[in-house]
Amino acid sequence: MKKVQLLKLAHARSGDKGDTANVGVIALKPEYYDIIKKELTAERVKKHFGKNVKGKVERFELPNIAALNFLLHNALGGGGTLTLKHDAQGKVVSANILRIEIDVPDDLIIE
Amino acid sequence: MKDFIRIASGQGYWGDRFDAPIDQVREGKVDYLVMDYLAEVTMSIMQKQKSRDPNLGYATDFITLLNTLLPLLVEKNVTLITNAGGVNPVGCMLAIREIAENLALNGLKIAAVYGDDILNQIDSLIASGNDLRNMETEADLSLIRKQVSSANVYFGARPVVDALQKGAQVIVTGRVTDTGITLAPMIHEFGWAWDDWDKLAAGIIGGHINECGAQSSGGNFFAGWKDVAKMERIGFPIVEAYPDGHLVITKHESLGGLVSEQTVKEQLLYELGNPEEYITPDCIADFTSIQLKQEAENRVRVFGIKGKPDTPFYKVSISYFDGYTCIGQLTYSWPEALQKAQKADEIIRKRLQYLGLEFDEIHTEFLGYNACGGDTAPAIADPNEVVLHMGVRGKSYRDLNKFSREVIPLVLTGPPTVTGFGGGRPKVREVIAYWPALLKKDTVEAKVLSIEVI
């Protein structure tokens, strides 16, 4: 096994629904999807974001587009117009999730 | 029946690139132009404008745009659907008529879709057993009843289809869903049944791809933003819809941008909740059924979509006044920029304490250091500069105003090498909060009014 940062394996987009941030993580190649699905659990994401996410993390699978969708609850300082955060709409949560390093098999070829 | 129709997105939100809708109509063949103007906070602002002048309450810069756009729409036979009507779609329709008369566009049919504004019916709705409780927190509306500033039902495609069937070429609505304005022309043109759930869901997904403008055609594109051509004139998306319910996402060749499986995937995931249950007034769409296939350059086929019956409820968006916020910023330079900004934060907090000011929240971030990443950002040694970003929230305007006066004095009384205070005192802003609720569909009725320019 080797450690690889998700940035090399996936792309992402995030947005907001009230105080919940959503972030979609999409495998850059279909063959990365299974390993991302195995490693990038809701628990792993919750741990990564630490105090940034006060509520629970939910995960949904979209195998049809080789993607996972995460809901990060109570993550935007109240959300909408209430929040004092600079990233009021969770626009850059997408970048932050891709900092995570996951274990991948040594023979997985990464471009 | 047409073999297919082309529905162009002209705007992703109020304030989006102003000439995009003009380019969409001018640079190639489209049949429909759809433009989204509304967000929760917009409805509240529009209610305020309408309370000052009963003729207002819609997006006035949309009317300005029509001076250029309307003759083009008529020349190219393109139908415009937009929710720019805000809380006064009929007023908006009359303003459009005036412009059309000035441009001598005789015979133009304009329609307004309204009935979504339930601000004046809240109490009678509650009295008749519709409690409008917060669908997320279950809280009772009485908690904030006095602070409510707008209340609108989200209508779907139905009333827009009615307007299309009346022959309108320009349709302005109140709170119709962003997805409904793209779905409606498909139902109108192809005669899809209201229980053909798979096709309705396909139209909804087309709407989701259109609703944020260039976000599906190369804007905000994580995977390959460096490869996107001519972003200064990025081509907004066009949904090419076919009678069998498959779609092709594309853009005009002459414009910039990029339509690929990756750009479409990113937009599909934007603001998505449970992918199997994308709930709209028209149907429930299943995002796990979507298949994508790049069939040519800048052409992505979207197919295989499944849908389920709609729910008996409309979503209601209620906005209410909820106090004030004020955010101040100061820029500290190297050396020890972070330490200086941290010291400034400490000083301001002590000043607030000394002055006896209390807030619901005081929040500090350091831009250039951790504002984007929070806990996930690794430490950096000695940044060139750091911006102190400090905000407070509370109910007392007086106290917020006092906070506003405490930021700039740091320039001469705090740590050295500080700049970026040219904007003066930070502004105290009203907080308009959002209260989502559900309402039985049979308690409100969408209305359509159409007129012809003579």
Write up what this structure looks like.
The complex is a heterodimer of chains A (111) and B (454). Chain A is an alpha+beta fold and 111 residues long. Chain A has three helices and six strands, in the order E-E-E-H-H-E-E-H-E. Chain A has one domain: Alpha-Beta Plaits (2-Layer Sandwich). In chain A, strand 4 and strand 5 form a beta hairpin. The longest helix of chain A has 8 residues. In chain B, strands 11-12-8-7-1-2-3-6-4-19 form a ten-stranded mixed β-sheet, with helices on both faces. In chain B, strands 5, 14, 15, 16, 17 and 18 form a six-stranded antiparallel β-sheet that branches. In chain B, strands 9-10-13 form a three-stranded antiparallel β-sheet, with helices on one face. In chain B, helix 1 packs parallel to helix 3, helix 3 packs across helix 4 and helix 7 crosses helix 8. Chain B is globular. Classes of the chains: A alpha+beta (111), B alpha+beta (454).
Mean pLDDT of chain B: 96
Helical amount among residues of chain A, as a percent range? 10-25%
What structural class do you assign from the helix and strand content of chain B?
Answer: alpha+beta
**Main β-sheet, spatial strand arrangement of chain A:** 2-3-5-4
Oligomerization: heterodimer
Question: Tell me about the biggest sheet of chain B?
Answer: 10 strands, mixed
User: What count of helical segments of chain B does DSSP give?
Assistant: 12
CATH class label of chain A: Alpha Beta
The number of strands of chain A is 6
Q: Which runs of chain A of at least 5 residues are low in confidence (pLDDT < 50)? A: none
Greatest chain-chain contact: A-B, 40 and 50 residues
CATH topology of chain A: Alpha-Beta Plaits
What is the percentage of strand-forming residues of chain A? 25-35%
Overall helicity of chain B: 25-40%
Overall 3D form of chain B: globular
Mean pLDDT of chain A: 96
